[in-house]
User: Fold these one by one.
Assistant:
Number 1:
Amino acid sequence: MHPKAIDWIIMGTYFAFVLGIGAALRRSMRTSTDFFLSGRSMPAWIAGLAFISANLGAQEVIGMAASGAKYGMATSQFYWVGAIPAMVFLGVFMMPFYYGSRARSVPEYLRLRFDEKTRGLNAITFAVMTVFSSGISLYALALLLRLLLGWDFNASITLSALVVLVYIFLGGLTSAIYNEVLQFFLIVFGFAPLVLIGLKDVGGWHGLVAGLHAVARSQGFEPRAWLSTWGVMGSPRDNPMGVDWFSMAMGLGFVLSFGYWCTDFLVVQRALAADSMDSARRTPLIAAVPKMFFPFLVILPGMIAIAATVHGGASGLALPRKADGQLNYDMVVPLMLGKYFPNGMLGLGLTALMASFMTGMAGNVTAFNTVWTYDIYQAYIRRQASDEHYLTVGRLATVAGIALSVAAAYVTNRFSNIMDLLQLLFAFVNAPLFATFLLGMFWKRASGHGAFAGLLAGTAAAAVHHGLTLPVGRTPGIKGGWIAVMHLYPSQMAQNFWTAIYAFAVCLLVTVAVSLATRPRPEQELVGLVYSLTPRERTNERRWYRRPALLGACVLAAAVALNVMFW
Amino acid sequence: MGLDIRIPIGALFSLLGGLLAAYGLAGGPALARRSLGINIDLWWGLVLAVFGAAMLLLAWRAGGRH
């Protein structure tokens, strides 16, 4: 890849705008609510695009393209099954409690609904996780810049951490949200031409289909395996993911997706920044519309690359192989950028990638500084202080969060297996979360002791399940089976889905059992926090497309249509 | 919130679109070899510029209402 002056000018222009936005917002950060929740003043469309963009980090972009090459169309299940239904549920059913309770964070909702220890557990694990995720973003960016442009690892980390630091320090969540909106458009405009040129390369849609048939046959699957979703999930042997329809629907579609989209403060924070209840509810629904079509932007490049590699294309694009002879799927995006984009467009594509790394990091940092300030500092360290004091603490937490991310990036660089271990632990902690929120919001009898016990039991269940099972062909250790190997899964993905299913079920059962054995909170304390005790949220909107329930139904119908079209 | 986000988005994409289109126009067919004969800098630059201008127009109209 050989960037020229024009590419540097494009990247430089983008960085100037990013810093400029932070500087322009500096004066409007007067209270802690301005800094942590954008003063609850965001219109629904801005919050919605930020909601989707906060999740669209560069690992996602590169990883989804890699999965598109490895698994084909079935990867879009992560969007049409693993995201849209949960986003609709969040907007229609859960947002009235998050936004309506005036909780300033997800852990704070747990404090209001359950008790202090449940909040503490969630706040502390979340804070640790966000710092490490942001460190991984930083590390991945530095690796990519070294690979593509030959940049020095230390210089890349310092530069990107400084840019993120400056714009969040100055403009808080608003700055993060504005840059996420900017990144949304950069990704769309930076990647769409990649798909268009790629399709031309492999001979249009028909050429792609023929190529993917060849890919499937070459790996011993039926021809449609790379083009189909549910149609090849009758048995784990029929699809390259090695999963069946039940674990896909329950594990990914229910437990994992609702657990992430409905409880992760990183995304929920964007909706809490909305200017009204109606806007907050529309935030995930508006986000669901582009989300539905992202597979064509981020997964299709991988499908094009594998079709070109196996079946041949006009340009001779072919994925490189790793040392062990396996195709290097992670190279899809960098390879296509370098192959198809002339100087100029190359600058735009690189800018889009860098923007998504930085917003991925910024999203974690803004969630971290809020949870740290409101749920840890204000809860346990200094309870009664002026708002100004908490604003200062938030700014300092931003600096600390970024310093810790940089440290995490270096840890990842030195000890990559520590990082794998941490991510595994986070998966155990996250797996049962949705059961706690579901019972909390829809069952008034659920008690604080029940929620706390359920979370611990669910996490333990995830760990035990992982310790007792192993994907086929792996050795016991970090991939599972570290207690004893009692069951073999056809793939790691199937194992992940079932770990989540067990964690959810155990958390649900233990929460119910312990709740029934302990004293519930008086009903008058739960008004606004539990479905059956809260007056239904009535929308004041007349226009149909602004009414959350109707908009949600339309979004779901469209997702179903996509599932059927690519059955 | 002090700043209409459509203004920086509109300005950034108009600027990037203009730069790309000009570069594409100056580069000619030689530049288009990689992108399989399509002068993507020129055409996509125009798309970006139109999008940027539309954003600025929306911001300007919203500003006029207050």
Note: The interface with chain A takes residues 1-3, 5, 8-9, 11-13, 15-16, 19-20, 23-24, 27, 31-36, 38, 40-41, 44-45, 47-48, 51 of chain B (CB under 8 Å).
Number 2:
Amino acid sequence: MKNLKLKKDLGSYYAYPMGIWFSLFFLLPMVLIFAYSFLSKGLYGGVELQLSLKAYRDIFQKAYLLILGRTVVISFEATLYTIIIAIPCALALARSKRQTLYLTLIIIPFLINSLLRIFAWMSILGSDGIINRTLIQLGIITDSLPLLYNRRAVILVMVYMYLPYAILPIFSAIDRFDFSLLEAARDLGATKMQSYIKVLFPSIKSGINTAIIFTFIPAFGAYTIPLFVGGKDSYLLGNLIVDQVTKTRNWPLASAFSMFLTLISTVLVMYVFVDDKKKNPKKKRKI
Amino acid sequence: MNQRRKEFHASNLVLILTVLFLLMPLFVIIVFSFNEGKGSTFTNFSLKWYKLLFSDSHALLDALSNSLFIAFTAGLASTVIATLAAIAVKWYSFKGKKYIQIITYLPMVLPDITLGISIVLFFAGLNVPLGLFTIFAAHTTFCIPFVYLTVLSRLDEFDYSIVEAARDLGATELQTLYKVILPMILPGILSGFIMAITLSLEDFIITFFVSGPGSTTLPIYMYSLIRFGVSPVINALSCFMIVSIALTAITLRHFVKDLAIS
């Protein structure tokens, strides 16, 4: 018993470095930008100690609402396509005999710096890029197609970037799934589709939820992708926030937008976690 | 049976196409790094971009050494901090455990841009000059959750009775940590460390905010190359990185599944 007491005290020594580090470099900065969002803008950047709701009123300007709405739509589309591609991939991966090979091939691009991959897409899609050059040489088109600097390019590159994030959690959920359950369902008279929707899908739902979070949230806060492959129709929230810090130096507005981004992400994560928790006990009771 | 085999083929096809889709841009980069011309038609095989890369390499080498320095120090710091915290959360009860458990997840789910903004405004508010230290602090912060989760999942497989046995046999707390716990969870710690290093080497957005003059990292350097005049030198640089990362991944492929699942 004495031992246990001693251990209790030691536990705090193990954990406190992290507690202190996170309080200092994560929580405090977050609290700080929360506070900044309620202050007024200083003349040369920075903030003045004067309470103001101007930043939050500014968010609801028409121009900003347009960017916000566009960001939601584009990240939603990118997430949808990513998940639709990721599910069959994860399924094939879980059944594949060459799992390690495929996993390595999926992880390698994910390890290459994202800027390099964006750059590669720029040289593929550009007006003088590989696709346009090839099509012109083949005589299919005469003028190059506007493949780059628009929202389609942004969505394509987002799907490309976030696919590994989506495939891996779904794969690890499917990997734990017992495939004989599918056969049992088929034996009991379910069609192929039914067995997938009613047996496989519910048990990998948490993996899909994680995939949605890992795709939607980075897409929602994306900066480099719209900066390099986007155009006027795909200037997103991330670009807006960065410009508020680096160009207009409006800290309160940048902080207010960041709080908004934080709020959206937290709500999404909470929703998914609560959803998981609600579903899981139910399942157990049914069994 | 026949029907079932068909459906395997369909998802296999999607997988193969997706892998090709994922690799295609890398392939393009590698091929065009050996192209003599500047455009996107392949004219002649040439090593001129590689020569240019290494002859005018002062800025590049500076950025590379900054990146490696940050990756190593931030990786080490985050691994030590996160491993200890994972051990504490797994086996001990203490004040503030709930706080630690919740707060570790947050930086992982927030967009990088929020993390970058909050930390740069924090440093600016305190008048801390931006430089290698601020990058180190920011990188350690966003690496910790990933290492923590990797180590925690390794600890789940750990048989706690071994710790009790060590203690019954007279090992002190520190001895138990060094001689029993750490060696057994070493693979988990190592994959966490590797993950932290890759995350740190790869990060652009957060570094973009917290780096100052003289603390350019490799991604920041590449950003300026892309931003101010696209040159095939980037292809040569990229090809170099792709080959080295691919080689590392292949050597460490036994870790790959661990990493993927965590």
Note: Chain B has twelve helices and no strands.
